[in-house]
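Supplementary Note 2. Why include the ligand at all?

Several targets in our set were suspected to adopt different conformations when bound, so apo predictions alone were not considered sufficient. For every target with a known small-molecule partner we therefore ran a joint prediction. The input for 5-O-phosphono-beta-D-ribofuranosylamine is given below.
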Amino acid sequence: MLVKVAVFISGGGSNLQSLIDKQQHYQVSLVISDKKDAKGLERGENHGIPSIYIGKDNYPDKEARAQEILSLLQSHGIEYIALAGYLSIVSDSIIQAFPNKIINIHPSLIPSFCGMGYHGHHVHQAVYDSGVKLTGATVHFVNEMVDGGAIIAQESVAVGQTDSPDIIGRKVLKIEHRLFPHVLNQLTAGKIKIEGKRTYLQED
Ligand code: GRF
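The joint prediction is reproduced in token form.
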């Protein structure tokens, strides 16, 4: 029986697509977007996955939004949640209902270039402006602190001296599309253990 996973999105859904394409130990069984026009909703629908907009337009009240999301997660038998470019803050009630079962992909090497305001292109612009020679992507557990959960995996890439922020973003996105499904397969296969802020991969 494959482990049922929900993917939360806000935009194009290229990470959602890679999670769908590379599922082995898990099955993407629900897509939730906080943006009504997110292209990722179409990607879910194209694969016959229930893909639902839940945002300020149809659930203006924050608590009601969280309750509706929780009810959908339960009715779809979801065991893990993957945040794939999801821009809203996940409510505490959802985090508490899914302890160490929510992961996020962040397009930098946390703890650098993360926290409030560091999302999407803003991250790569800050990397460019800072002059660092390495950047990359991080998959981490989600807790109540934005980008503050225990780190599970990271992969780095060189920042070329002629790289623009867009080029940097493209290099990092390629890593994301590989790293995120890889980690989600390990997590849903029960291979990742967490102790405080440290995580351990159990070899076969
Ligand atoms: C991208 O900036 C990616 O780096 C980050 O979220 C954004 C969404 O990408 N993880 P997509 O919607 O998965 O294409």
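The CA atoms of residues 142 and 148 lie 7 Å apart. The first helix runs from residue 14 to 21. Comparable summaries for the other entries are listed in the accompanying table.
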